[in-house]
Amino acid sequence: MFAGFSARRRWENDYVGQHAADVAAPTTHEAEIEIKLDARHVNFFYGDFQALQDASLAVQARKITALIGPSGCGKTTFLRIFNRMHDLTPGTRATGEVLLDGHNVLSPDIDVINLRRQVGMLFQRANPFPKSIYDNVAYGPHILGWSKQQISEIVEESLKDTGLWEE
Q1: HSE-up of 147 (CA within 13 Å, CB side)?
Q2: Residue 157 predicted with pLDDT over 80
Q3: 71, 85, 111, 132 — which has fewest CB within 10 A?
Q4: Mean pLDDT estimate for the chain
């Protein structure tokens, strides 16, 4: 735990990870920093189990940011909130604010399809949605508005090419 902070888990991106209430008035250099994504007091639940508590992070525009920590500490859970991948897992919920260009991605009014076009995720290991193999392959073409015929053709071709058609 970071001294002086109440969050059980808090990831910081240098001084940018601290919010205005946590630090003194910004210097000229700090005032010029553009924040692309600002997660504030995020909590995440798998049913009754709270996996994240009061997590906050500010990410600068056009900068590389890394979340580093031991296995099981909540890094992937935190990242999945940014494009609402948790919506696909029954019984999960996120609270707090995640502002992308000033818009709260956790708002029920957000266009999740458009959000996922803006916030992609690439994992070291396969991380399929909790759906069938067919539905996982069809997901991208479906959100792009492809016809059922086009989706069926690309899914069959893709699964045959990978040896998964019979699965």
Answers
A1: 3
A2: yes
A3: 71
A4: 82
Pair of tokens at residue 147: 């016809």
Cα–Cα distance measured from residue 130 to residue 46, given in angstroms and rounded to the nearest whole number: 14
Is residue 117 included in any domain, yes or no?
yes
Name the 3-class secondary structure at 77: helix
Percent of the chain with pLDDT over 70: 81
pLDDT band at 25 (very low <50, low <70, confident <90, very high): low
Q: Are residues 114 and 132 in the same domain?
A: no
Boundaries of domain holding 164: 128-167
Q: What is the value of pTM for the model shown?
A: 0.61
C-alpha span between 43 and 47 (Å, rounded): 12
Do residue 110 and residue 53 come from a single domain? yes
Is residue 100 within 8 Å of 115, Cβ to Cβ? Answer: yes
Across the beta sheet with 103-104, what order do the strands follow? 49-60, 35-46, 92-100, 103-104
- Could you tell me if residue 2 is inside a domain? no
